[in-house]
């Protein structure tokens, strides 16, 4: 599931026939992120979390935004929650690049 987030961020993500409310808000958060409106994106991601607290894509994007806002601890927490809900495996793991904790200068426990 998390593997689709990089495609969303590049604008090549999946299109669903009838997106749910949280999917629409996630799309809006990603659009705000692309525009460089990080605080607004983070606020939209909080709204997604209220609608769907177990949405791993929203948590992953939240980690990206928090990392870009230099909120490293919060970013690691968001990434950890996302991977606890939907652990990356196989092609999904390799398509998302290095684990976020390594990207933040920390060693992975895996």
Put the structure in a nutshell.
The chain is mostly helical and 110 residues long. The chain is 65% helix and 0% strand.
Give a structural overview.
The radius of gyration is 13 Å and the shape is globular. The chain is built from seven helices and no strands. It has helices spanning 4-10, 21-34, 38-51, 56-68, 72-85, 90-95, 100-103. By secondary structure, it is mainly alpha-helical. It starts with a helix and ends in a 7-residue tail after the last helix. The protein has a single domain, classed as Serine Threonine Protein Phosphatase 5, Tetratricopeptide repeat (Alpha Horseshoe), CATH 1.25.40.
Q: What do we call the CATH homologous superfamily?
A: Tetratricopeptide repeat domain
Looking at the structure, what is the overall shape? Answer: globular
How are helices and strands ordered from N to C? HHHHHHH
Task: Report the C-alpha radius of gyration, rounded.
Answer: 13 Å
Tally of structural domains: 1
What is the overall pLDDT average?
Answer: 76
The main sheet comes to: none
Quickly name the level 1 CATH class.
Mainly Alpha
